[in-house]
UniProtKB/TrEMBL annotation:
UniProt-recorded Gene Ontology molecular function terms: ATP binding; metal ion binding; phosphoribosylaminoimidazole carboxylase activity
Record's keyword annotation contains Nucleotide-binding: yes
EC number(s) reported in the record: 4.1.1.21
Keywords associated with the record: ATP-binding, Nucleotide-binding
One of the GO biological process terms: 'de novo' IMP biosynthetic process
Assigned GO CC terms: chloroplast
Protein's name in the database: phosphoribosylaminoimidazole carboxylase
Coiled coil segments of this chain: none
Residue ranges of every copy of the ATP-grasp domain listed in the record: 21-93
């Protein structure tokens, strides 16, 4: 499930041009009319193979071509002159296509409801004059956990801003941290203060990056030495 979409993507011109070319070639090889969503994966090392196009040494993987409006494109309702839904209908019935460009310089879409039976997924779109302004407007993220107690933690791992979990009944909101875990309470306080303090926000981002690197080092050691050596150094 797609949690976060940033438009436009913060990638280099070369990557943007390459992704556009691949998407065009993929859709051109298919029949039909309407919106086609092309999903690409950008690899960390830049060494990958397009499975469909059989090209080597490229920087992304072609994962999916969906012949329909896509959940990653819901932000077009607010951020484009013509939403993906309007564009799809106009193409299918043979009407002239609408303007295929953004009417706002930056937009971020957050999915706020998980997938459940007989329930539509919800999302919120924030638009602004720049990506920095959009992220500033996000200041505090409210994540409904529902039955998934890990959902808020997943979002919190992706942003230095505060993420508030709400597992309690109406009228009893709480910011959830682990029992006997003062470190998490302190980290959450830093995130709250970081809303208005750029230095604290930068330090929190660095802490997240350091934590990520520490996890990767542990994973590498576990894979190299095995679990017995890892538990008994």
């Amino acid at each position: 499930m797609c949690h976060i979409v940033k438009a436009l993507a913060n990638v280099s011109w070369d990557i943007w041009k390459h992704a556009t070319d691949v998407a065009y070639k993929a859709v051109s090889s298919l029949e039909g009319a309407g919106v086609f969503a092309v999903e690409l994966f950008l690899t960390g090392d830049g060494q990958a193979v397009f499975l469909l196009l059989s090209l080597r040494l490229l920087k992304m993987l072609l994962n999916e071509v969906a012949p329909r409006p896509h959940n990653s494109g819901h932000h077009t309702i607010e951020s484009w002159y013509t939403s993906q839904f309007e564009q799809h209908l106009q193409a299918v019935v043979g009407l002239p296509l609408g303007e295929p460009s953004m009417k706002t310089p930056a937009a971020v879409m957050y999915t706020i409801l998980e997938m459940r039976k007989q329930q539509k997924m919800g999302h919120v779109t924030i638009v602004g004059p720049s990506m920095g302004d959009v992220e500033e407007r996000l200041k505090s993220i409210l994540k409904e956990e529902g039955s998934d107690c890990q959902a808020a933690g997943m979002v919190a791992a992706l942003t230095p801003l505060p993420v508030i979990g709400v597992p309690m009944p109406r009228g009893v909101p709480v910011a959830t941290v682990a029992i006997n875990n003062a470190a998490n309470a302190g980290l959450f306080a830093v995130r709250m203060m970081g809303i208005h303090d750029a230095d604290l926000l930068a330090r929190m981002s660095q802490y997240q990056e350091d934590t990520r690197n520490d996890v990767l080092r542990k994973a590498e050691k576990l894979e190299k030495d095995g679990w017995e050596s890892y538990l008994n150094p």
